Amino acid sequence: MVGVPSRHKSIFLLGGMVLLQILLLAAQIKRDAQGRLIRVWTVGAISPFERAGSYGIGSVRGTWGHYFALQNTSRENEELKHENDVLKLQVTQLQSRVSEAERLEHLLNFREAHQEAPMMGARVIGTSADTATRAVYIDRGERDGVQRNMAVITPNGIVGKVIETFSNTAQVLLITDKEGGAGAMLAESRNQGVVGGTGEPLLEMKYIANDDKVDVGEQVVTSGMDRIFPPDLPVGTVAEVKAGNPFKVIRLRPAAKLEQLEEVIILTTLHPLEVKKESAASDPATAGAKASNATSAPGKPATDKNATAQPAVEKPKPPAANR
Amino acid sequence: MNETYDIRTAESHIEVHKFHGGAIIGTMVVIFFLQAFLPQYFHQLAILDLPLLATIYFGLSRRNPSTGLLLGMAIGLAQDSLSGPTVPLGLYGIAKTIIGYLASSIGARLDTEHPAARFALTVLFFGLHQGILVLERRILLAQPEVWFTVRLGIAALINAVVGVLLFTLLDRLRKPS
Description:
The structure holds two protein chains of two kinds. Chain A is an alpha+beta fold. In chain A, 37% of the residues lie in helices and 22% in strands.
């Protein structure tokens, strides 16, 4: 047997490893498999650190920031510094809790306003390791009933959808990702299109004809046609409109603060929902469009509304506020 | 494998560095934690590719192409795993395998301890890494991907600056000569 010179061994090893991974890639494309076992192991190894870091840094950041803000105002009272510092620390801890409570109250209010929709709160614990992917990890997973393709929102607007679930965590693809998107319509004209991500902070709305009137600042809401997001949830605001060929080029500023996500809401159902806005009930145009959506959705079963009207069957878990 | 040793040729004297037990694995865990965690609070930091910097550093330090490429592959596959289903396993794996190999090979031939050399090599490897990714996306995944943007150029420079600082920090994990 001919021996391989040691200096060539590494080249053969390189070729072998690259070839192996090309085959791995090809296998995933062919079978649409995603090497789930490897992902589960890796995420399982990293997510406990992310979870701990998220809670730890969150509380330290709140206390730390407020502490210095208050300390600057107390310079005139040097003689009382020690006593003040103790009090300030207590105050800042309370402020941190109040600010968190306010955020959670906001979520809770949203939940109470949409009791027909089964949902649960979740905390964002990390982002994607890929610099080009707009995705985040949340601290809810299969054990909490999270499944792929569930919609993720905030009270301000839609966030994205669950693309991968693990036992205690899940990954959410943001709508700003190149592969993210949602069925959407202009809030005033009710013209429907598709909103997709570009990998940049702004979204792009497609399939709006050049003849249709679109104004900068106009609201865009979900249409419900994607069967993931319920209709009439805020998607974003029109930031830029240009004539294109054959459709308008419309750029949107996302309604949800996707760069500063801390808590989100997962809609824990895979059935299409009809979530109503507080003002929607009194708005005949909105109601009309909703009715139109409900009847025009291709393949939409007649029992969809019944399905969404049964939150008790799904027994949604309490939101983060109750944890 | 526990002592520092030298590769001596007639013309060169290149030191091969060893690390304290668990240093590489520990660094990897911290790197991936930071990569996933920091952009959540400072979204500008999403421009950093810390796993790539770690691949380059350990490649340059270990100076063994086989070790470098295997380490690069492990880091790349872990990054693929943490990136979710939109990134197939192997995308970063292949790129970092090649980078790990090249970094180790170059590290065995050049003195890469000087910050200027590290800066230049990091810019070079960042560009190469990006080129391999684009090639993979275009050829293997049939995804349209641009070769170069200004943002990538800025990212290369920022990563190189952070790389020089990170490498200095990681030098402390080396076993003394």
